[in-house]
Amino acid sequence: MNSDEYQRAHQQLLERVVAETRETGGATGLYELSERVLQVMATVPRHRFVLPEQHGWAYVDMPLPIGLGQTISQPFIVALMTELLAPGPEDAVLEIGTGSGYQTAVLARLARQVYSLERIPELAEAAAQRLQELGLANVAVRAGDGCLGWEEQAPFDGIIVTAAASDVPEALVRQLKPGGRLVIPVGLPHQTQDLQVLEKDEQGQVQVRSVLPVVFVPLIGSF
């Protein structure tokens, strides 16, 4: 596709994401996306985060394979999870599961600093290079066990997990600031999972809210 075709496809994708947000609002309680999230979704070039042979599908609202058994998430889910996390311009955010770096790029345009962990070194290295080429200097990517979080940089204003955990890792809850949010799919691999939002209050108590059935690749690591 040429640049005009990418632009048209990107616009059609945004329209689909807006429509799907409205359609699922009864379940999520969220009928529209904020202007901040919409603007960023319109800015991040998704075709830069997919394999060359997938470029023709980059702006279709669906997950795509990125190699090594991993996927880039459906844009609607990226937008929804970002909206649920609600990162502010002064926030430090932890992402578990860098993948190709698409969700990372979205977060980087909304938060002060993004720390992203990827268990597959090849993906972590490629994503870091891609994000650097896009001029996103407020991102740190490293290979590591996402279940353990990033203790040296904790606590975080928000944590987002882009792989499904059978249980919420305690390390991530511990590394969340009071007043912060953790957005995570919870459930067994290769089955429908439950997208959850955990909110920690000022006393350190955690409230959990179920949002939507989802399907993610499994979160692999030690708890």
Task: Give the topology, please.
Elements: H1 3-23, H2 25-28, H3 35-43, E1 64-67, E2 70-72, H4 75-85, E3 92-96, H5 102-108, E4 113-118, H6 121-133, E5 139-143, E6 156-161, H7 170-174, E7 176-186, E8 193-200, E9 206-214
Parallel strand pairs: 3-4, 3-6, 4-5, 6-7
Antiparallel strand pairs: 1-2, 7-8, 8-9
Helix pairs in contact: 1-4
Sheet with most strands: strand arrangement: 5-4-3-6-7-8-9
How large is the radius of gyration?
Answer: 16 Å
Task: Specify the helix fraction band.
Answer: 25-40%
CATH-scheme architecture of the domain at 62-214: 3-Layer(aba) Sandwich
Annotated CATH topology of the domain at 62-214: Rossmann fold
The CATH homologous superfamily of the domain at 62-214 is called Vaccinia Virus protein VP39
DSSP summary: helix tally: 7
What do these coordinates show?
This protein is of the alpha/beta class and 223 residues long. It has a domain at 62-214: Vaccinia Virus protein VP39 (Rossmann fold, 3-Layer(aba) Sandwich), CATH 3.40.50. The protein is built from seven helices and nine strands; from the N terminus they run αααββαβαβαββαβββ. The strands form two sheets. The chain has a seven-stranded mixed β-sheet with strand order 5-4-3-6-7-8-9. Strands 1-2 form a two-stranded antiparallel ribbon. Helix 6 (121-133) links the parallel strand 4 (113-118) and strand 5 (139-143). Helix 1 crosses helix 4 (75-85). The longest helix has 21 residues, at 3-23. The model has no long low-confidence stretch (mean pLDDT 96).
